[in-house]
Amino acid sequence: MKTLFNTINDLKKEIKNEELLKKLDFLEEAFRKLRTKTGLKGLVRKKKLRKVLRDVEYEEELIRLQIELIKLQNWVYENKKRVMIIYEGRDAAGKGGAIKRFTEHLNPRKYRVVALPKPTEVETGQFYFQRYFKHLPDPGEIVFFDRSWYNRAIVEPVFGFCTPEQYEKFMMEVPEIEHALIDDGIIMIKFWFSISKETQKKRFDERMKNPLKQWKLSPVDKKAQELWDEITHYKEEMFSRTHTSYSPWIIVNSNDKKTARLESIRYVLSQIPYDGKKDAKVSLHPDPDIVQRYHRKNLQLD
């Protein structure tokens, strides 16, 4: 491989044609990517060359963004800021995978991931938000909510886990509660990971075939395709009534998981004025075709 790189470099010294030089630069970069751990793994698995190169580019971009996340986390800790990031979306939209990439290299003492089980008998008799309030971020901490109080906006009414009165009460209260939290200094970001019906079915099928992922399937998941339109109705109601100027819904096109991960991280970095941001060696401007604020005129995937 070294000989190949030396040959390319020798050719570049002798060639004056700019188009040919660009092609040699591309070839040199491609070989560099193939020498990485991800590149070699892809070749061993006999993946298509283009797919291998895309995988390497994704890994390299992810690492650059994760370096910025570490800088952001340090800023949050040192300045005693409180950050909460909510991840919502249909089943198999890629929320858990995105959170995993967000937290992969963070200091575990300075963040938490909250994924609450169904409420206990005691919790069902409490003020609805009470069990979530226990997990709000402390000073210097980032908390990632893998689903949140918005269960009552979609999952609970669709599957009959709450009464119409409880649903309506929640929808009226949540904008005021979020306003109070933000007014108290909490930095809040609300993501909706959006997928098509076809993508969801494909991912469910993959889970069924993969013994390492079968635990992700639940009785609720199995009805998700059947209840697609009803979920869509409640999702649109949620957006319409809980999307505010101070707490907007951020829609992430997650039909491509890897792109969704990169762009959602990029969005968070773009929103918080952490130290060292100007020195970033990666773009902090999210792709508007992948990440955008909710708007009633938007054409949503789901």
From TrEMBL:
Indicate the segments forming the Polyphosphate kinase-2-related domain, all copies. 55-278
Give the source's domain of life in one word: Bacteria
The record's listing under Gene3D superfamilies reads: P-loop containing nucleotide triphosphate hydrolases
Q: Which residues form a coiled coil?
A: 1-37
What keywords is this UniProt entry annotated with?
Answer: Coiled coil, Kinase, Transferase
EC number(s) in its UniProt entry? 2.7.4.-
Name the InterPro entries for this protein. P-loop_NTPase (IPR027417), Polyphosphate_phosphotransfera (IPR016898), PPK2-related (IPR022488), PPK2_PA0141 (IPR022486)
Its BP terms in the Gene Ontology are: phosphorus metabolic process
* GO MF annotations, alphabetized: polyphosphate kinase activity
Family named by the database record: Belongs to the polyphosphate kinase 2 (PPK2) family. Class I subfamily.
Physiological role: Uses inorganic polyphosphate (polyP) as a donor to convert GDP to GTP or ADP to ATP.
Quaternary structure note: Homotetramer.
NCBIfam families linked: PPK2_P_aer (TIGR03707)
Name the record gives this protein = ADP/GDP-polyphosphate phosphotransferase
Q: What is the lineage of its organism?
A: Bacteria, Pseudomonadati, Campylobacterota, Epsilonproteobacteria, Nautiliales
